Amino acid sequence: MKIAVLSCIHGNYEALNAVLLDLEQHKAEKIYCLGDLVGYGPYPNAVVEMIRSLDIPTCQGCWDEDIVEGLNACECSYPSLLAEQRGKLAHEWTHERIYPEVRDYLAQLPLSLREGDLCFTHGSPQNQHEYLLPEMNAFAALERVLSTGANTLFCGHTHVPYVRTLEAGSIRLRVDYKGESGEETVFTTPLRRIVNVGSVGEPRHGRPNATYVLYDTETDHVQLREVEYDYQKTCAAIIEQGLPPIFAWRLARGLEFAERADDPSHICER
Amino acid sequence: MMTQLKSQSPGLYIVSGPAGSGKTHWIFQQLSKQTGSQIYGAPSQSSWCLDSAYLESQLRGDLQNLNTRNLAEIEGWALKSPVYLELGFHLDLQVLPIFSSCVPCHKIAVLPSGLAMSEWHFWADNLVLGVGAMNPQMPSQIQKSDLTGEVFDPASLDMVWYELTHGAYGEVQRAKGIFNVVDGRSFWFSFVAGQDSYYEELNRPRCLESRPGGLSGIEVCGQNLDTEAIASNLAASCLNDQLLSHYQAQYRSYAANSEVVS
Protein backbone atom coordinates (compact mmCIF):
# COMPACT_ATOMS: atom_id res chain seq x y z
CA MET A 1 0.00 0.00 0.00
CA LYS A 2 1.25 3.45 -0.84
CA ILE A 3 0.77 5.95 1.98
CA ALA A 4 1.36 9.69 2.05
CA VAL A 5 2.64 11.34 5.22
CA LEU A 6 2.41 15.09 5.64
CA SER A 7 3.14 17.50 8.45
CA CYS A 8 3.38 21.13 9.49
CA ILE A 9 0.77 22.72 7.22
CA HIS A 10 0.63 25.87 9.35
CA GLY A 11 -2.51 27.37 7.88
CA ASN A 12 -1.15 27.32 4.34
CA TYR A 13 -4.22 26.21 2.38
CA GLU A 14 -2.62 26.69 -1.06
CA ALA A 15 0.26 24.39 -0.18
CA LEU A 16 -2.08 21.76 1.28
CA ASN A 17 -4.19 21.71 -1.89
CA ALA A 18 -1.11 21.29 -4.06
CA VAL A 19 0.11 18.38 -1.93
CA LEU A 20 -3.30 16.70 -1.95
CA LEU A 21 -3.36 16.93 -5.72
CA ASP A 22 0.18 15.56 -5.99
CA LEU A 23 -0.45 12.58 -3.72
CA GLU A 24 -3.63 11.80 -5.62
CA GLN A 25 -1.66 11.81 -8.88
CA HIS A 26 0.79 9.38 -7.26
CA LYS A 27 -2.09 7.15 -6.22
CA ALA A 28 -1.55 7.29 -2.48
CA GLU A 29 -4.14 5.05 -0.86
CA LYS A 30 -3.94 6.44 2.64
CA ILE A 31 -2.84 9.73 4.16
CA TYR A 32 -1.39 10.42 7.62
CA CYS A 33 -0.88 13.90 9.00
CA LEU A 34 1.62 14.65 11.76
CA GLY A 35 0.06 17.86 13.05
CA ASP A 36 0.78 21.57 13.22
CA LEU A 37 -2.25 22.33 11.14
CA VAL A 38 -2.33 25.92 12.39
CA GLY A 39 0.04 28.76 13.24
CA TYR A 40 1.83 31.45 11.17
CA GLY A 41 -0.31 30.89 8.04
CA PRO A 42 -3.47 32.80 7.04
CA TYR A 43 -6.01 29.95 6.79
CA PRO A 44 -5.98 27.88 9.99
CA ASN A 45 -9.72 27.08 9.93
CA ALA A 46 -9.79 26.11 6.25
CA VAL A 47 -6.84 23.75 6.68
CA VAL A 48 -8.43 21.98 9.65
CA GLU A 49 -11.75 21.70 7.83
CA MET A 50 -10.03 20.13 4.82
CA ILE A 51 -8.16 17.58 6.96
CA ARG A 52 -11.38 16.73 8.81
CA SER A 53 -13.45 16.46 5.67
CA LEU A 54 -10.98 13.94 4.21
CA ASP A 55 -10.94 12.04 7.50
CA ILE A 56 -7.14 12.00 7.56
CA PRO A 57 -5.69 10.33 10.68
CA THR A 58 -3.79 13.17 12.38
CA CYS A 59 -1.49 13.59 15.39
CA GLN A 60 -1.43 16.68 17.53
CA GLY A 61 1.43 19.06 16.77
CA CYS A 62 3.00 21.58 19.13
CA TRP A 63 1.11 24.48 17.59
CA ASP A 64 -2.17 22.56 17.81
CA GLU A 65 -1.47 21.91 21.48
CA ASP A 66 -0.57 25.56 22.14
CA ILE A 67 -3.79 26.78 20.56
CA VAL A 68 -5.75 24.44 22.82
CA GLU A 69 -3.74 24.73 26.03
CA GLY A 70 -2.42 28.27 25.70
CA LEU A 71 1.11 29.29 24.93
CA ASN A 72 3.28 27.96 27.71
CA ALA A 73 6.12 26.35 25.81
CA CYS A 74 9.44 26.32 27.58
CA GLU A 75 12.20 28.51 26.17
CA CYS A 76 13.53 25.69 23.98
CA SER A 77 10.93 26.61 21.40
CA TYR A 78 12.54 29.89 20.51
CA PRO A 79 16.11 30.43 19.40
CA SER A 80 15.97 34.20 19.85
CA LEU A 81 14.05 37.08 21.41
CA LEU A 82 12.86 38.15 17.99
CA ALA A 83 11.66 34.65 17.12
CA GLU A 84 9.79 34.54 20.41
CA GLN A 85 8.08 37.85 19.73
CA ARG A 86 7.04 36.70 16.25
CA GLY A 87 5.88 33.31 17.50
CA LYS A 88 3.72 34.93 20.16
CA LEU A 89 2.27 37.32 17.63
CA ALA A 90 1.34 34.45 15.32
CA HIS A 91 -0.14 32.53 18.24
CA GLU A 92 -2.28 35.49 19.29
CA TRP A 93 -3.49 36.06 15.72
CA THR A 94 -4.45 32.39 15.31
CA HIS A 95 -5.98 32.17 18.78
CA GLU A 96 -8.31 35.10 18.01
CA ARG A 97 -9.55 33.64 14.72
CA ILE A 98 -9.87 29.93 15.34
CA TYR A 99 -13.43 28.53 15.43
CA PRO A 100 -14.52 26.75 18.63
CA GLU A 101 -15.19 23.49 16.77
CA VAL A 102 -11.70 23.67 15.22
CA ARG A 103 -10.19 24.11 18.68
CA ASP A 104 -12.24 21.12 19.92
CA TYR A 105 -10.97 19.02 17.03
CA LEU A 106 -7.34 19.96 17.74
CA ALA A 107 -7.84 19.17 21.44
CA GLN A 108 -8.83 15.56 20.84
CA LEU A 109 -5.98 14.66 18.47
CA PRO A 110 -3.74 11.81 19.65
CA LEU A 111 -0.03 12.32 20.26
CA SER A 112 0.92 9.39 18.05
CA LEU A 113 -0.60 6.88 15.65
CA ARG A 114 0.39 3.32 14.76
CA GLU A 115 -0.05 1.24 11.63
CA GLY A 116 1.74 -2.12 11.69
CA ASP A 117 5.45 -1.49 12.30
CA LEU A 118 5.08 2.23 11.56
CA CYS A 119 4.66 4.96 14.13
CA PHE A 120 3.56 8.51 13.36
CA THR A 121 4.23 11.45 15.64
CA HIS A 122 4.80 15.19 15.38
CA GLY A 123 8.08 15.94 17.17
CA SER A 124 9.24 12.84 18.99
CA PRO A 125 7.40 10.01 20.76
CA GLN A 126 8.18 11.83 24.02
CA ASN A 127 6.89 15.27 23.21
CA GLN A 128 5.40 17.30 20.36
CA HIS A 129 8.00 20.00 21.08
CA GLU A 130 11.10 17.81 20.87
CA TYR A 131 13.13 18.04 17.65
CA LEU A 132 14.60 14.90 16.14
CA LEU A 133 17.27 16.63 14.11
CA PRO A 134 19.31 14.53 11.67
CA GLU A 135 22.51 15.17 13.63
CA MET A 136 20.98 14.05 16.94
CA ASN A 137 23.13 11.59 18.89
CA ALA A 138 22.55 8.11 17.40
CA PHE A 139 21.92 6.49 20.77
CA ALA A 140 19.26 9.04 21.70
CA ALA A 141 17.68 8.77 18.24
CA LEU A 142 17.58 4.99 18.49
CA GLU A 143 16.04 5.21 21.95
CA ARG A 144 13.24 7.38 20.56
CA VAL A 145 12.39 4.82 17.88
CA LEU A 146 12.72 1.81 20.22
CA SER A 147 10.36 3.44 22.73
CA THR A 148 7.56 3.19 20.18
CA GLY A 149 8.08 -0.50 19.37
CA ALA A 150 7.93 0.40 15.67
CA ASN A 151 10.58 -0.12 13.01
CA THR A 152 10.01 3.17 11.25
CA LEU A 153 9.18 6.42 12.98
CA PHE A 154 7.63 9.19 10.88
CA CYS A 155 7.98 12.67 12.32
CA GLY A 156 7.90 16.33 11.31
CA HIS A 157 8.44 19.49 13.39
CA THR A 158 11.92 20.36 12.04
CA HIS A 159 10.46 21.41 8.64
CA VAL A 160 13.48 19.90 6.88
CA PRO A 161 12.87 16.43 5.41
CA TYR A 162 15.36 13.61 5.88
CA VAL A 163 15.63 9.84 6.18
CA ARG A 164 17.95 8.50 8.86
CA THR A 165 18.74 4.81 9.04
CA LEU A 166 19.95 3.58 12.41
CA GLU A 167 22.04 0.54 11.60
CA ALA A 168 21.89 -2.66 13.58
CA GLY A 169 24.32 -2.50 16.47
CA SER A 170 24.93 -3.43 20.05
CA ILE A 171 24.63 -1.42 23.23
CA ARG A 172 26.66 -2.36 26.33
CA LEU A 173 25.20 -1.26 29.62
CA ARG A 174 26.68 -1.47 33.12
CA VAL A 175 25.46 0.30 36.22
CA ASP A 176 28.08 1.04 38.88
CA TYR A 177 26.60 1.71 42.30
CA LYS A 178 28.48 2.92 45.38
CA GLY A 179 31.84 1.89 43.97
CA GLU A 180 30.69 -1.61 43.02
CA SER A 181 30.73 -2.56 39.37
CA GLY A 182 27.44 -3.89 38.08
CA GLU A 183 26.98 -6.68 35.62
CA GLU A 184 27.38 -5.78 31.96
CA THR A 185 24.38 -6.36 29.74
CA VAL A 186 24.57 -6.35 25.96
CA PHE A 187 21.56 -5.42 23.83
CA THR A 188 21.46 -6.07 20.15
CA THR A 189 19.41 -3.51 18.26
CA PRO A 190 17.95 -4.23 14.86
CA LEU A 191 17.72 -1.76 11.99
CA ARG A 192 15.45 1.18 12.68
CA ARG A 193 14.60 4.28 10.68
CA ILE A 194 13.45 7.86 11.22
CA VAL A 195 11.66 9.56 8.35
CA ASN A 196 11.15 13.28 8.70
CA VAL A 197 8.53 14.35 6.20
CA GLY A 198 9.39 18.07 6.15
CA SER A 199 6.69 20.71 5.99
CA VAL A 200 3.77 21.35 3.70
CA GLY A 201 3.17 24.96 4.60
CA GLU A 202 6.32 26.40 6.12
CA PRO A 203 9.40 24.82 4.54
CA ARG A 204 12.87 25.52 5.89
CA HIS A 205 14.95 23.89 3.22
CA GLY A 206 15.72 27.11 1.33
CA ARG A 207 12.93 26.89 -1.28
CA PRO A 208 9.25 27.74 -0.90
CA ASN A 209 8.03 24.34 -2.18
CA ALA A 210 5.91 22.08 0.00
CA THR A 211 7.44 18.76 1.07
CA TYR A 212 5.90 15.47 2.14
CA VAL A 213 6.66 11.74 1.92
CA LEU A 214 5.27 8.82 -0.04
CA TYR A 215 5.93 5.43 1.53
CA ASP A 216 5.31 2.04 -0.02
CA THR A 217 4.62 -0.51 2.70
CA GLU A 218 5.34 -3.43 0.38
CA THR A 219 8.68 -2.28 -1.06
CA ASP A 220 9.64 -0.24 2.04
CA HIS A 221 10.54 2.58 -0.33
CA VAL A 222 10.51 6.16 0.98
CA GLN A 223 10.12 8.98 -1.52
CA LEU A 224 10.62 12.58 -0.39
CA ARG A 225 8.35 14.74 -2.50
CA GLU A 226 8.84 18.44 -3.16
CA VAL A 227 5.80 20.15 -4.66
CA GLU A 228 5.72 23.57 -6.28
CA TYR A 229 2.65 25.69 -5.64
CA ASP A 230 1.59 29.30 -5.95
CA TYR A 231 3.22 30.48 -2.73
CA GLN A 232 2.69 34.09 -3.78
CA LYS A 233 -1.02 33.61 -3.11
CA THR A 234 -0.24 32.59 0.46
CA CYS A 235 2.21 35.49 0.79
CA ALA A 236 -0.48 37.92 -0.38
CA ALA A 237 -3.00 36.40 2.05
CA ILE A 238 -0.53 36.71 4.95
CA ILE A 239 -0.33 40.46 4.32
CA GLU A 240 -4.05 40.88 3.59
CA GLN A 241 -5.02 39.08 6.77
CA GLY A 242 -2.84 41.34 8.91
CA LEU A 243 -0.06 38.92 9.73
CA PRO A 244 3.46 40.44 9.76
CA PRO A 245 4.77 40.93 6.19
CA ILE A 246 8.07 39.38 7.28
CA PHE A 247 6.25 36.00 7.41
CA ALA A 248 5.51 36.32 3.69
CA TRP A 249 9.08 37.33 2.94
CA ARG A 250 10.45 34.30 4.79
CA LEU A 251 7.92 31.90 3.28
CA ALA A 252 8.92 32.97 -0.24
CA ARG A 253 12.52 32.05 0.56
CA GLY A 254 11.97 28.76 2.31
CA LEU A 255 13.14 30.18 5.63
CA GLU A 256 11.58 29.34 8.95
CA PHE A 257 9.22 31.94 10.37
CA ALA A 258 10.37 31.86 13.93
CA GLU A 259 10.24 28.61 15.82
CA ARG A 260 13.22 26.31 15.75
CA ALA A 261 15.12 24.38 18.39
CA ASP A 262 18.41 25.98 19.29
CA ASP A 263 19.66 22.99 21.19
CA PRO A 264 18.53 19.65 19.73
CA SER A 265 19.71 17.74 22.78
CA HIS A 266 17.47 19.76 25.06
CA ILE A 267 14.53 17.81 26.43
CA CYS A 268 11.51 20.01 26.73
CA GLU A 269 10.20 20.04 30.28
CA ARG A 270 6.85 21.68 29.79
CA MET B 1 44.09 57.42 -12.82
CA MET B 2 44.57 55.51 -9.58
CA THR B 3 47.56 56.85 -7.66
CA GLN B 4 49.64 55.97 -4.64
CA LEU B 5 49.38 58.88 -2.25
CA LYS B 6 51.98 59.86 0.36
CA SER B 7 49.52 60.53 3.08
CA GLN B 8 51.92 60.84 6.02
CA SER B 9 52.86 64.48 5.55
CA PRO B 10 50.93 67.33 7.16
CA GLY B 11 47.95 68.65 5.27
CA LEU B 12 44.28 68.21 4.72
CA TYR B 13 43.17 64.94 3.17
CA ILE B 14 39.56 65.25 2.08
CA VAL B 15 38.15 61.84 1.25
CA SER B 16 34.98 61.23 -0.71
CA GLY B 17 33.36 58.48 -2.78
CA PRO B 18 30.17 56.46 -3.18
CA ALA B 19 28.46 54.69 -0.26
CA GLY B 20 30.41 51.63 0.82
CA SER B 21 33.40 52.22 -1.44
CA GLY B 22 35.83 51.91 1.48
CA LYS B 23 36.50 55.52 2.50
CA THR B 24 36.74 54.82 6.23
CA HIS B 25 38.77 51.69 5.58
CA TRP B 26 41.29 53.66 3.52
CA ILE B 27 41.53 56.34 6.22
CA PHE B 28 42.00 53.62 8.83
CA GLN B 29 44.92 52.22 6.83
CA GLN B 30 46.58 55.64 6.63
CA LEU B 31 46.04 56.44 10.30
CA SER B 32 47.35 53.00 11.35
CA LYS B 33 50.66 53.76 9.65
CA GLN B 34 51.04 57.06 11.45
CA THR B 35 53.22 57.53 14.47
CA GLY B 36 52.10 61.04 15.43
CA SER B 37 48.68 62.54 16.00
CA GLN B 38 45.69 60.81 14.45
CA ILE B 39 43.18 63.42 13.45
CA TYR B 40 39.86 62.70 11.80
CA GLY B 41 36.60 64.47 11.13
CA ALA B 42 33.36 63.67 9.34
CA PRO B 43 31.78 67.03 8.48
CA SER B 44 28.74 65.54 6.77
CA GLN B 45 27.68 63.54 9.82
CA SER B 46 25.19 64.90 12.32
CA SER B 47 25.51 64.61 16.07
CA TRP B 48 27.02 61.12 16.02
CA CYS B 49 29.20 59.23 13.60
CA LEU B 50 29.65 55.46 13.39
CA ASP B 51 32.81 55.73 11.29
CA SER B 52 34.43 57.93 13.86
CA ALA B 53 33.43 55.54 16.67
CA TYR B 54 34.83 52.62 14.66
CA LEU B 55 38.17 54.39 14.11
CA GLU B 56 38.35 55.40 17.76
CA SER B 57 37.93 51.78 18.84
CA GLN B 58 40.24 50.19 16.32
CA LEU B 59 43.20 52.55 16.21
CA ARG B 60 45.91 51.90 18.73
CA GLY B 61 46.63 55.55 19.46
CA ASP B 62 44.22 58.22 20.56
CA LEU B 63 42.12 59.48 17.72
CA GLN B 64 41.45 63.15 17.81
CA ASN B 65 37.96 63.75 16.61
CA LEU B 66 37.67 67.18 15.04
CA ASN B 67 34.93 69.60 15.74
CA THR B 68 34.53 70.32 12.08
CA ARG B 69 32.54 73.48 12.55
CA ASN B 70 35.72 75.33 13.31
CA LEU B 71 37.62 75.70 10.04
CA ALA B 72 40.43 77.74 11.53
CA GLU B 73 41.10 74.98 14.02
CA ILE B 74 41.21 72.36 11.25
CA GLU B 75 43.70 74.43 9.29
CA GLY B 76 45.85 74.84 12.39
CA TRP B 77 45.98 71.09 12.91
CA ALA B 78 46.61 70.40 9.22
CA LEU B 79 49.72 72.55 9.25
CA LYS B 80 51.24 70.24 11.87
CA SER B 81 49.83 66.78 11.02
CA PRO B 82 47.83 64.95 8.41
CA VAL B 83 44.14 65.61 8.99
CA TYR B 84 41.55 63.34 7.39
CA LEU B 85 38.10 64.65 6.58
CA GLU B 86 35.61 62.07 5.37
CA LEU B 87 32.70 63.30 3.26
CA GLY B 88 29.48 61.38 2.91
CA PHE B 89 28.51 60.17 -0.56
CA HIS B 90 25.48 62.48 -0.49
CA LEU B 91 27.44 65.70 -0.01
CA ASP B 92 27.53 68.22 -2.86
CA LEU B 93 31.21 68.45 -3.76
CA GLN B 94 30.75 71.92 -5.27
CA VAL B 95 29.80 73.59 -2.00
CA LEU B 96 32.65 72.45 0.20
CA PRO B 97 34.32 75.08 2.40
CA ILE B 98 37.39 76.73 0.94
CA PHE B 99 40.51 76.30 3.00
CA SER B 100 43.44 78.68 3.15
CA SER B 101 45.94 78.19 0.36
CA CYS B 102 48.76 77.86 2.88
CA VAL B 103 47.38 74.47 3.95
CA PRO B 104 48.28 71.62 1.61
CA CYS B 105 44.95 70.13 0.57
CA HIS B 106 44.51 66.76 -1.13
CA LYS B 107 41.18 65.66 -2.56
CA ILE B 108 40.95 61.89 -2.63
CA ALA B 109 38.15 59.86 -4.19
CA VAL B 110 37.84 56.24 -3.08
CA LEU B 111 36.03 54.58 -5.97
CA PRO B 112 34.84 51.08 -6.69
CA SER B 113 36.14 49.30 -9.77
CA GLY B 114 34.26 49.84 -13.00
CA LEU B 115 33.33 53.45 -12.34
CA ALA B 116 34.59 55.14 -15.49
CA MET B 117 33.43 58.71 -15.05
CA SER B 118 31.69 60.50 -12.20
CA GLU B 119 31.60 63.76 -10.29
CA TRP B 120 34.34 62.33 -8.07
CA HIS B 121 36.67 61.97 -11.07
CA PHE B 122 36.32 65.70 -11.78
CA TRP B 123 36.63 66.73 -8.16
CA ALA B 124 39.52 64.60 -6.91
CA ASP B 125 43.20 65.04 -7.52
CA ASN B 126 43.90 61.50 -6.31
CA LEU B 127 41.90 58.37 -7.07
CA VAL B 128 42.09 55.32 -4.84
CA LEU B 129 40.71 51.93 -5.81
CA GLY B 130 38.08 50.99 -3.24
CA VAL B 131 36.03 47.87 -2.81
CA GLY B 132 33.10 46.29 -4.64
CA ALA B 133 31.36 47.36 -7.80
CA MET B 134 29.54 50.59 -8.45
CA ASN B 135 25.83 50.54 -7.80
CA PRO B 136 24.22 52.48 -10.68
CA GLN B 137 21.57 53.94 -8.41
CA MET B 138 22.38 56.41 -5.65
CA PRO B 139 20.57 55.67 -2.37
CA SER B 140 17.54 57.88 -1.97
CA GLN B 141 16.99 57.20 1.73
CA ILE B 142 19.24 57.17 4.78
CA GLN B 143 18.00 55.84 8.10
CA LYS B 144 20.12 56.45 11.17
CA SER B 145 19.26 55.11 14.62
CA ASP B 146 21.25 55.77 17.76
CA LEU B 147 21.32 52.52 19.75
CA THR B 148 23.71 53.63 22.47
CA GLY B 149 23.04 51.70 25.66
CA GLU B 150 21.09 48.98 23.87
CA VAL B 151 22.28 45.39 24.18
CA PHE B 152 21.31 42.78 21.60
CA ASP B 153 20.41 39.14 21.80
CA PRO B 154 22.99 37.82 19.26
CA ALA B 155 20.61 35.35 17.54
CA SER B 156 18.00 38.08 17.05
CA LEU B 157 20.60 40.52 15.75
CA ASP B 158 21.79 37.89 13.30
CA MET B 159 18.22 37.37 12.09
CA VAL B 160 17.47 41.11 11.63
CA TRP B 161 20.79 41.72 9.90
CA TYR B 162 20.17 38.81 7.52
CA GLU B 163 16.69 40.11 6.69
CA LEU B 164 17.92 43.69 6.33
CA THR B 165 20.76 42.78 3.97
CA HIS B 166 18.63 40.38 1.92
CA GLY B 167 15.89 42.85 1.07
CA ALA B 168 13.19 42.16 3.65
CA TYR B 169 12.82 45.85 4.52
CA GLY B 170 13.52 47.41 1.14
CA GLU B 171 16.49 47.65 -1.19
CA VAL B 172 19.54 48.20 0.99
CA GLN B 173 22.67 49.41 -0.78
CA ARG B 174 24.76 50.12 2.26
CA ALA B 175 24.33 49.28 5.93
CA LYS B 176 26.70 49.63 8.82
CA GLY B 177 26.33 49.42 12.53
CA ILE B 178 27.98 49.13 15.91
CA PHE B 179 26.12 46.70 18.14
CA ASN B 180 26.63 45.64 21.75
CA VAL B 181 25.85 42.00 22.49
CA VAL B 182 24.93 40.32 25.72
CA ASP B 183 28.37 38.79 26.45
CA GLY B 184 29.72 42.32 26.83
CA ARG B 185 31.41 42.67 23.44
CA SER B 186 30.73 45.21 20.69
CA PHE B 187 30.86 44.53 16.97
CA TRP B 188 31.15 46.47 13.73
CA PHE B 189 28.79 45.20 11.01
CA SER B 190 29.21 46.36 7.45
CA PHE B 191 27.30 45.52 4.29
CA VAL B 192 27.55 46.73 0.70
CA ALA B 193 25.06 45.43 -1.89
CA GLY B 194 26.51 42.59 -3.90
CA GLN B 195 29.06 41.65 -1.23
CA ASP B 196 29.01 39.50 1.89
CA SER B 197 28.58 41.21 5.22
CA TYR B 198 31.74 41.99 7.17
CA TYR B 199 31.93 41.66 10.96
CA GLU B 200 34.66 42.82 13.29
CA GLU B 201 34.92 42.85 17.06
CA LEU B 202 35.71 46.29 18.43
CA ASN B 203 38.57 46.93 20.85
CA ARG B 204 36.33 48.08 23.65
CA PRO B 205 36.39 46.91 27.24
CA ARG B 206 33.83 44.14 27.85
CA CYS B 207 30.78 45.49 29.56
CA LEU B 208 29.23 43.02 32.01
CA GLU B 209 27.76 45.56 34.42
CA SER B 210 24.71 47.63 33.47
CA ARG B 211 24.50 49.20 30.01
CA PRO B 212 27.51 50.04 27.82
CA GLY B 213 28.24 53.71 27.29
CA GLY B 214 30.13 53.60 23.97
CA LEU B 215 28.36 54.81 20.84
CA SER B 216 26.33 52.20 19.05
CA GLY B 217 23.89 52.61 16.22
CA ILE B 218 22.94 51.71 12.70
CA GLU B 219 22.96 53.54 9.38
CA VAL B 220 21.09 52.15 6.39
CA CYS B 221 21.13 53.61 2.86
CA GLY B 222 18.87 52.43 0.06
CA GLN B 223 15.50 52.74 -1.64
CA ASN B 224 11.97 52.02 -0.46
CA LEU B 225 13.16 51.33 3.05
CA ASP B 226 10.53 50.26 5.56
CA THR B 227 12.07 52.34 8.31
CA GLU B 228 9.35 51.45 10.81
CA ALA B 229 9.90 47.71 10.35
CA ILE B 230 13.67 48.11 10.68
CA ALA B 231 13.26 50.08 13.89
CA SER B 232 10.67 47.75 15.43
CA ASN B 233 12.61 44.57 14.64
CA LEU B 234 15.79 46.07 16.06
CA ALA B 235 13.89 47.08 19.18
CA ALA B 236 12.47 43.57 19.54
CA SER B 237 16.01 42.17 19.42
CA CYS B 238 17.25 44.15 22.43
CA LEU B 239 17.31 42.91 26.01
CA ASN B 240 15.27 44.59 28.72
CA ASP B 241 16.89 45.47 32.05
CA GLN B 242 15.78 42.29 33.76
CA LEU B 243 17.09 39.94 31.06
CA LEU B 244 20.29 41.91 30.68
CA SER B 245 21.00 41.75 34.38
CA HIS B 246 20.24 38.00 34.44
CA TYR B 247 22.61 37.17 31.57
CA GLN B 248 25.34 39.54 32.71
CA ALA B 249 25.38 37.78 36.10
CA GLN B 250 25.88 34.47 34.27
CA TYR B 251 28.75 35.86 32.16
CA ARG B 252 30.40 37.36 35.25
CA SER B 253 30.16 33.99 36.90
CA TYR B 254 31.72 32.21 33.87
CA ALA B 255 34.48 34.81 33.79
CA ALA B 256 35.21 34.35 37.51
CA ASN B 257 35.29 30.55 37.14
CA SER B 258 37.62 30.65 34.14
CA GLU B 259 40.01 32.88 36.07
CA VAL B 260 40.05 30.33 38.93
CA VAL B 261 40.72 27.45 36.47
CA SER B 262 43.50 29.25 34.62
Automatic annotation (TrEMBL), chain A:
<feature type="domain" description="Calcineurin-like phosphoesterase">
    <location>
        <begin position="1"/>
        <end position="220"/>
    </location>
</feature>
<dbReference type="InterPro" id="IPR011152">
    <property type="entry name" value="Pesterase_MJ0912"/>
</dbReference>
<protein>
    <submittedName>
        <fullName>Metallophosphatase family protein</fullName>
    </submittedName>
</protein>
<dbReference type="InterPro" id="IPR024654">
    <property type="entry name" value="Calcineurin-like_PHP_lpxH"/>
</dbReference>
<dbReference type="InterPro" id="IPR029052">
    <property type="entry name" value="Metallo-depent_PP-like"/>
</dbReference>
<comment type="similarity">
    <text>Belongs to the metallophosphoesterase superfamily. YfcE family.</text>
</comment>
<dbReference type="InterPro" id="IPR050126">
    <property type="entry name" value="Ap4A_hydrolase"/>
</dbReference>
<dbReference type="Pfam" id="PF12850">
    <property type="entry name" value="Metallophos_2"/>
</dbReference>
TrEMBL record, chain B:
<protein>
    <submittedName>
        <fullName>GTP-binding protein</fullName>
    </submittedName>
</protein>
